[in-house]
Design a protein that fits this description.
The chain is built from 3 helices and 9 strands, in the order αααβββββββββ. By secondary structure, the chain is α+β, with helices and mostly antiparallel strands. The protein is elongated. It has a 9-stranded antiparallel β-sheet with strand order 8-7-6-5-4-3-2-1-9.
Length: 181
């Protein structure tokens, strides 16, 4: 046990780990993965795992000292890649999307739209009658003026959010809303 956890081995493993984190981080930032591309993880994770095992098998014949590091690295790199991928999707989604939630008669509604950098955007309203299930209600255009968000649905209905209250939605005068992100 002492031979495994000596200073030289830990230093070597730490350097390999730092290189992995830098490479994976750069790769994620370069490709900008989206939530809709999560299916690629089914192909990318085993590929990264196998690449590390191939490197370990090559190093077995060249320099055996590094072989156990790359075998352990095969598991660690796949985990880091998955973590970075999911964190990027979550953080990027919070940056580019605005999301409000409200409750009417115990049903959760969610109003989502891309950030309003150019002043106008499209929005969607989903409702969730049960946990994990959501249905689209409507969509339309959203405009930010001063500190008020104005929504105009495709059927012509109009309502707005002002100071964390939604006015005019579903024949309700005033509904408390909470900004998720």
């Amino acid at each position: 046990m002492k031979a495994i956890l000596n200073k030289k081995n830990l230093k070597t493993f730490f350097y390999i780990l730092i290189i992995d984190i830098i490479l994976i981080g750069c790769w994620i930032l370069y490709f900008h993965p989206e939530g809709s591309e999560a299916i690629f993880l089914l192909f990318i994770l085993p590929t990264v795992f196998l690449i590390n095992l191939v490197i370990a098998s090559i190093l077995y014949f060249i320099k055996r000292y590094y072989t156990p590091f790359f075998i352990a690295n095969a598991f660690l790199t796949s985990s880091i890649l998955y973590l970075f991928w999911m964190l990027y999707i979550d953080i990027y989604g919070r940056i580019i999307w605005e999301d409000w939630e409200l409750y009417i008669d115990g049903i959760e509604y969610s109003i989502s739209y891309p950030s309003l950098k150019n002043g106008t955007s499209e929005y969607n309203i989903l409702y969730s009658p049960e946990k994990g299930m959501s249905n689209g209600v409507e969509g339309g255009m959203v405009v930010m003026q001063n500190d008020t968000l104005y929504f105009t649905s495709t059927d012509g209905a109009k309502y707005f959010i002002y100071k964390n209250y939604l006015y005019g939605f579903k024949n309700n005068e005033k509904i408390k809303v909470k900004k998720r992100y």
